[in-house]
Amino acid sequence: MAAAVRGIRSCKGFISSTRRCSHSVALKPQYDAIIIGGGHNGLIASAYLQKGGLKTAVLERRHVLGGAAVSEEIIPGFHFSRASYLLSLLRPHIYKDLELKKYGLKVYMRDPHSFTPMLEEGVAGRAPRSLLLGADLAKNQQEIGKFSEKDAKAFPDFLTHLERLACAIHPLLDAPPVDIPGLTQGSLRKRISALRSLKPLVKSGIKLGKNIPDLYELITAPVMKVLNRWFESEPLRATLATDSVIGANTSPNNPGSGYVLLHHVMGELEKEKGAWGYVEGGMGGVSQSIARSARSLGADIFTEREVEQVLIGQDGSARGVVLKDGTEVSSKVVLSNATPYITFKQLTPQDALPEAFITAVDQIDYTSPVTKINVALDRLPNFLAAPNTRDGKPGPHHQCSIHLNCESVELLEEAYREGQLGRPSSRPMLEMTIPSVLDPTLAPRGCHVVSIFTQFTPYLLEGRRAWTNEDRERFAETVFDWIEHYAPGFKSSIVGKDILTPPDLEKVFGLTGGNIFHGSMSLDQLYLARPLPSIADYRSPVKGLYLCGSGSHPGGGVMGAAGWNSALTVLADFKRR
């Protein structure tokens, strides 16, 4: 511990790239477009609106840009991706269009990708078994073969199958949903124009071909129905199943969990499909690079400018915003990167919205099972299943997503059932990452930052009781105890921690209910119904007020598609004026 303290002191000069930057640009009284919230989608929307010729301003309430994709120095010398912690889903065309590498985005690729250690007695003095998966297919088969030769043979075909389904839905991500009102209402000319909205759906159908039934099954069925058909070994099935529940208040045996799995494998990084990586300096590096790109195009971006309310003109359309300090800023359109609940229940005057619409907004599901714990360590964790070498250098498994309490699907199911009773899981599902293994900018030399994504924790505890500090500490201790089982000495290496339960995620990041996706990724809240059928095209009942955040199609994750789609919708509406 003393070494860690010395390390922290030696890092006093280590300046976070996400600390507040001073910009000389003053907030103007009028813009073409105002974006509420400086999360990644809002920043992306600002860049494309500015490229389209609209003078745009982004107003962020916090002192730092990025929303949930943010880096913060919570403990002196230790820099955390405080909420979102991995990059994969960011749409490649956005990455390229906005020249994010040019504007400072640097990514550390991970290989291997996933490490699942077992809690078991070693045989003949050997370490407990583990499952290590990465980009090398032959090595993957060797690892899987420790548990099932049958599964090892089936694994390549499964990956090909999953990749085929994921690639086929890419056209749907980069366009608004089908324009149902346009196709069914209005003049013949409008209906013909709306036919263009079918193009992405047709593209996906052509790509899928005979696999359309397979996609339908995957997105509607419990993921275990699919996985059980492919595999027999528990460690492999459970490891794959974690992606079907991550961030979602569901179990692998619930319908719709298959889509959550698909959502988490549809990305790519550095042209490697399905890969996830660490952003240098933390996830705030993504947001900062987007902001630099948007500013270079002429967008004005401000922190510590909290919007109090959307201004509504006499004609019932949005005409700007009023800030918390009373400042009014006029605009022709307003885009909200906040959740639909915050947008329509807190920022929009209620008398500007139809009563039936407000009732529908109240029904959007924001249930969250997630508690994020960020931990500073003074040394590298030492796993029983993969002991550290004498030189203390990180092993391949340290750069992975480390899955703990994931030896079997039943463990995931038990954790889910317990969480539904209002009790934080006593054996929670844990996804642990150590980005400082690849990114030395995050921690003092010899020290590390750890992100622990835990499930299942309810928003309210038994008896609808709010979380207390004692509850937070108790749950964190449970998490640390379980990590200690897999990596003895972990608890004694802790320098500091940051515990974010669902109510904390809501308070700090504006994530209604603590839901990391801005609304559950359930079948009733996807595509044509995200967040509601009446506003799936990013347009709200208030003319000139749009959604641009993850609560809209295609949903959560650091993807940027919602911001891109919303911006194109706004620009199309301007052309029609």
Automatic annotation (TrEMBL):
InterPro entries attached to this UniProt entry: Amino_oxidase (IPR002937), FAD/NAD-bd_sf (IPR036188)
Protein name in the entry: Pyridine nucleotide-disulfide oxidoreductase domain-containing protein 2
Family according to the record: Belongs to the carotenoid/retinoid oxidoreductase family.
Organism domain of life: Eukaryota
Domain Amine oxidase: 42-383
GO terms for cellular component: mitochondrial matrix
GO MF assignments: oxidoreductase activity
Protein localization: Mitochondrion matrix
UniProt keyword list: FAD, Flavoprotein
Organism: Triplophysa tibetana
Principal location: mitochondrion
